[in-house]
Amino acid sequence: MEYFNSFFQNIKDKLTNPFFGTLIIVLIWHHPQFWYSIFNFDDGVNLRQKISYLREIGTREFSIGELVNDILWTIFLVIVGYLIVLVTRTLSMWIEFRLMPMITKKIVSENLVMRTEYDDVVKERNEYSEKYEEQRKAVRIMSRDYDAISAEANNKNIQINEFQAQITNLNNSVSKEKNNANKWKSGFEAAEKKASQLSEQVHFLTLDHDKLKEENEDFNNFFFRVEGIFDEPITILREAISKAKEMKSKKRWKIFLEVGEDIVLERPIRNLDNIAKLGAYHVIMGDIRSANNYEFTVLGRVLWNYREQFGADEII
Fold first, then answer.
1. C-beta of residue 295 within 8 angstroms of C-beta of residue 226
2. Domain spans in the chain, listed from the N-terminal domain onward
3. How far is CA 125 from CA 88, 129, 136, 138, in A?
4. Mean pLDDT along residues 212-223
5. Which band of pLDDT confidence, cut at 50, 70 and 90, is reported for residue 281?
6. Whole-structure pTM over 0.85, yes or no?
7. How far apart are CA 18 and CA 283, in angstroms?
């Protein structure tokens, strides 16, 4: 069933096609004898004679030259038909959109306008309407902004009044502080006098301190054999801790222990370069030309006697 539907639909499409429809008309027009002979035969003619006759007339009527001629006529007629359609539609549109409006405008009413003028007026009106709406929106926004600015201005006025009250309070506070400052100024002058007296006392104490310092240096030179190593004798333990830290940080502590072991065991110093490395710490004294004549200074003796408390390896 679908095959037959497709077949007849195909025939319908071909017949409705301008070219094939025109071609069928041209074939019927140019070959009427063939089409007439299909349906009309003399009595007594059998089927074989009919087929032979139709084959003979078909060969003559539908030769290649005749078919080419039919196709050319078909193309010509199709072009002429499209030109007629084009001319008629152009004429129809010109009458409808050009001639009729002009005639209508002159006959019907002077107030009648062209469609293009009407469209331009409508377009302009719409543009003005859109601009009007935009202006209305802008006015509403400005109105809201004005209300907000007014409210903010009122808040600022309230804040200004509060600040003025605070300024008044601050002025009162400043007046009180000025009074207090005058009292403090009097107390400061009295304190300056007392400070002057204390400065004189400090001057005398400084003189006493310098004198004691000279005596202390003489004491250090006599007992410790190193000039200026201590400011006060009581600081020897503090200086020992400082030297131990310094030797540990400079990796001289193990060298000090090795040299100290040689001195305690009363044997020659194994490496005289170690004596030079320890020279800046004032812990060993002796003749650098001999490996046997070395001993601890007072500071070195303290470090050696308390080496376990100072630690063997780590930096304290």
1. no
2. 2-30+63-107, 233-310
3. 37, 6, 16, 20
4. 50
5. confident
6. no
7. 128
The pLDDT value given to residue 195: 76
Q: Hunting for tokens 């004596």 — which residue is that?
A: 275
Cα separation, 211 vs 6, whole angstroms: 137
Q: Please name the residue that has the structure tokens 């009413």.
A: 109
Distance (Å, rounded) from C-alpha 225 to C-alpha 158?
83
Mind listing the pLDDT tens digit for each residue in 8-40? 666 666 556 777 778 778 877 877 777 777 777
Strand partners, 284: 296
Burial 158-172 (b: 16+ CB within 10 A, else e): eeeeeeeeeeeeeee
Cα 233 to Cα 230, 237, 241, 281: the distances in Å are 7, 9, 14, 17
Q: Does residue 224 contact residue 299 with C-beta atoms inside 8 Å?
A: yes
pLDDT at 147: 82
Q: Which residues pair with 295 in a beta bridge?
A: 285
pLDDT at 88: 92
Which tens digits make up the pLDDT trace of 302-314? 888 888 877 655 4
| Structure tokens belonging to residue 37 | 């002979």
Report the alpha-carbon angle 171-172-175, nearest 5: 85
